[in-house]
Specification:
heterodimer, A: six-stranded mixed sheet, four-stranded antiparallel sheet, 53% strand, B: 113 residues, mainly beta, seven-stranded mixed sheet
């Protein structure tokens, strides 16, 4: 079955420092990968996707993600963190074997310290 | 939260009661989804519908029911058979199956009295 794993429940970063939120995937075939962000008591918002092409994908709010096929990873990155980036981040994969449903990771809580 | 409206924002259920959560979209999307979110467990799929008058069970459908009589509406009923209904419920829609980018509502928080 297709799946994604987010190995860190929480990540703490000082404001202005670069941030990385980790995600690894397990899929058969070519992966369709996504990152979503959730602010408190809100729904998820789409940040970016990897379908094919460049391994570095740029998304909303200055975020980017690096697709690494050999390491089966899709880590979310930002060069300089803002306090307003504090939120819950979800990695996700499209499951082409099950009606193209989206499988979400368990989420990583990002705390940006002022 | 785009064009997905969920209501109510907070809902309380008494023992043995069925409750219905509303989800309406004005994005003209064919597919709609219901997820349940519990702390530390991510999102789990309850039901989904890819077209009007058709829907399929997700991973945790027991104790829930849905209907899809109109393209813009996909209500979720939490029945008395669902013994642990306290959670945050999220509705989403998507435009196409290929990319399946999901657009979410603001959610309904259900608690048991």
């Amino acid at each position: 079955a297709q799946s994604v794993a987010q190995p860190e429940d929480q990540v703490n970063v000082a404001e202005g420092n670069p941030l990385t939120v980790k995600c690894t995937y397990s899929v058969s075939g070519n992966p369709y990968l996504f990152w979503y962000v959730q602010y408190p008591n809100r729904g998820l918002q789409f940040l970016l996707k990897y379908i094919t092409g460049d391994n570095l994908v740029k998304g909303s709010y200055g975020f980017e993600a690096e697709f690494n096929k050999s390491q089966t990873s899709f880590h979310l990155k930002k060069p300089s963190a803002l306090v307003s980036d504090s939120a819950l981040y979800f990695c996700a994969v499209r499951d082409m074997n099950r009606d193209d449903k989206i499988i979400f990771g368990k989420g990583t809580r990002l705390h940006i310290l002022p | 939260d785009g064009g997905i409206t969920q209501s109510p924002k907070y809902l309380f259920r008494k023992e043995g009661q069925n409750v219905t959560l509303s989800c309406e979209q004005n994005l003209n999307h064919d597919a709609m989804y219901w997820y349940r979110q519990d702390p530390g467990q991510g999102l789990r799929l309850i039901y989904y519908s890819q077209i009007v008058n058709d829907f399929q069970k997700g991973d945790i459908a027991e104790g829930y029911s849905v209907s899809r009589e109109k393209k813009e509406s996909f209500p979720l009923t939490v029945t008395s058979a669902q013994k642990n209904p306290t959670a945050f419920y999220l509705c989403a829609s998507s435009q196409d199956r290929i990319e399946n980018i999901q657009y979410f509502g603001a959610g309904t928080r259900l608690s048991v009295l």
